[in-house]
Amino acid sequence: MEANDQLSFEEAMEKLETIVMKLENGDVPLETAIELFQEGMRLSQLCGSKLELVERKIELLVETEQGVQRKPFVHPNEDRGE
User: Fold this and answer.
1) The pLDDT of residue 1
2) Chain centroid to CA 2
3) Taking the chain (82 residues) in consecutive chunks of 10 residues, what is each chunk's mean pLDDT?
4) End-to-end CA, the chain
């Protein structure tokens, strides 16, 4: 597990914004720019995964005649027997 996996969504976004500013500034050597780009891609994927997880949790709230009902959450990586 990489250190970035421990970051909150907000922390990852903050790091990603910093990387984007550095790359847009253009004052970094090519090798550093490549490393920053790779790190930015990892952070972007991490943020996307976290957003997808939250979206799935939200979808579990289903409106019924009695109001809102919560269904058990199955993590996307768990085997659902499908």
Assistant:
1) 42
2) 14
3) 75 96 93 96 95 82 66 62 48
4) 27
Q: At 20, list the tokens.
A: 């984007």
How far apart (Å, rounded) are the C-alpha atoms in residues 6 and 53? 15
The alpha-helical segments, DSSP class H, found in the chain are 9-25, 30-59
Q: Check residue 44 and give its pLDDT.
A: 96
Whether the CB-CB separation of 40 and 16 falls below 8 Å is answered with yes
Helix (H, G, I), strand (E, B) or coil at 75: coil
Place of tokens 């790091």: 15
Give the Cα separation of 46 and 23 in Å (integer).
19
The pLDDT of residue 14 is: 96
d(CA 6, CA 9): 10
